[in-house]
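Students often ask what a holo structure prediction actually looks like on paper. The answer is less mysterious than it sounds. You provide the chain, you provide the ligand, and the output is a string of discrete structure tokens encoding the 3D arrangement of the protein together with D-xylitol-5-phosphate.
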Amino acid sequence: MKVSPSLLAADFAHLSSEIDMINTSSADYLHLDVMDGVFVPNISFGFPVLKTVGKICSKPLDVHLMIVNPDRWISHVRDIGAEIMNVHVEATTHLHSTIMRIHDSGMKAGVTLNPATPVSSLEDIIADVELVLLMSVNPGFGGQPFIRHTLDKVRQLRNLIEKSGSNALIEIDGGVNERTGAELSEAGADILVAGSYIFGAEDPKRNIDLLKSL
Ligand code: DX5
Ligand code: ZN
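The corresponding structure tokens follow.
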């Protein structure tokens, strides 16, 4: 299993030691949640913070934009050195065009679905993306309980990917711990995002290792 710790749950007063912990852990990515207070009812951090994080983080950056008009920010996300740019299908009017522009900028494109958005909405775009990020909570806050219907969505998405010959990875975000992580692994997930389960732990590296072993 690949693991993408979500910086949202980190101690912002000690950002550099938190990122040091990630750099020296077995994590595969660092997940960065950008919120605008419009698409989601919360505001997190913006590009000045992301730029600094990009400079000191040695893991590939997995950027999750919970903002309206994500298209406007493609070059900013590229400039922080992101490997993956995730946009919500609910926030994007011309999804195909957005995906092409993310690729033209040299990044991998991820499409993200809210809990109530069906997997079938990806039928006509699945062949063009490197990753699908399924929200297993309503986006905006860390520490929420896992929505169990996500397990069905992972199985549906795995079928869609196989049917279409796409190479997209399946990433899950929200309420992930070793118990829900094991169920997600069995359902067919490739990458687990975890915030509070990692940064809220006494031994964060051990919890990263635990998720990796699933
Ligand atoms: C929520 C964010 C998540 C969040 C997950 O909107 O997209 O990445 O940090 O937090 P946990 O793992 O605590 O549910
Ligand atoms: Zn996220």
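The CA atoms of residues 54 and 90 lie 27 Å apart.
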